[in-house]
Amino acid sequence: MKTFGSIQPSAVQDFLRDLVQADRPPAPGPRFDTVTDDLAQLGLTAGRPVLVALPNGRDFVTVVFALLAQGAVPVLLPPSAPPSRIERMARALGADVLLAPRVPPGPGPGEPPLTVGGTVQSAFLHGVPARRYRPGEIVLLTSGTSGVFSGCLHRVESLLLNASRHAHAIGQTAADRVLINLPLHYSYAFVAQLLATLVSGGRAVVTGPPFTPARHARTLQDHRITVSSLTPALTAAWLGTGRPLPAPLRALTVGGDLLDAASVAHLRERNPDLELYLTYGLTEAGPRVATLAAHREPPHRHTSVGLPLPGVDVRLRPAQPGDAVGELIVETDTGMLRRVGHPDEPAPPTDGTRTSLATGDLFRRDDDGYLYFHSRRPTYVISRGEKVSLRSVCAVAETLPGVLGAQAWPYRNDAGDTVFTLDVYCADASADEREIRRRLADVLLRSEQPARLLVHPAAQLGWRKSVAKERS
What we know:
25 strands, Rossmann fold
């Protein structure tokens, strides 16, 4: 097992040399040592957090690995995050350096932004009180479990351990070519795809959105992909084509949400030789928790997420004694150190080597130890294929001028997708819905924006705190 501290720069450079960015013409990318030297010129000190808002690609991988080699702490952001979202994240996490494809000019007259590796720009965010973490740490964001303006602080070594366990669970080896088309700023792709390929010695092919079945099939064939991953939403789009996945694909993993038994059956029927792995995890756990090798299991287990990975222990905490369903509690040595962005929140319980995490997800467990997802904590939904914290969306809405309260309600639209309505309660009953939407779009990602937004007079909310907020 490799940890980042034992991976020599030459090994990282070899990995990057073999990495292919499928959605761009073949061209040499930025060299690892060049990016490392450029970062050193920025004067980054050990433990300094750095916001990374880059799309999937060679630049993202090279910059993140180089930051870790420098002892800096990458904070992985969605590349589509609007400027006000980035600013609020910077203040919440104490990160005063930004790396992105384009950044604002420097504070001096006509001062151009600094470049890293010739393709990435850097900016120092003035007025942000900087924090310090420890070298070898990284911050992974998850709107679904940590809220919009917080993240999970991890040791990179524990993420690599989790990646190694995941690779072993799906039989991934140095002979595999792995397609990474899910967002790399999320833990699923970063750990279970990118780091798993690094530690197993395979080759990575990276592409990004938008996903289409035709483009996906072409990439699988053109680059001779043997391992790929999809979310349930992308799997549904592929199944809609009625075609089998193309050779030489050996294994498909599905994570991010529950894949229904009918979809599992259709995948198996159309791809009888395909290895199909259903996985469950959460960013706090590092992230993978359990895996089901669906191609080796009878149909009655196709609604299961399988057995815990080696080194992971789970138990159920029922609401009432004797209940068959309970909240899943995960104990693992790859858990987060703590949540950052919420200064008053305590670190999760730990005995020094293993962390105990309450997932908020309800499961049942059969006599053989297989886990079956029952329901999710109601304040979180999967909207447009991504986990969204409705509580955080409401909190953002309540910061808008004149908004005294907000409530969110998930529902399924005519296409069968889970979306949500946002009710906002305003001091002025004639508040403009379009202006509220515009202000929300300055902060929220597309997946976090409501399908319907309804404006109500504050009197309908009945909160006693409305007068206090109106005066503030």
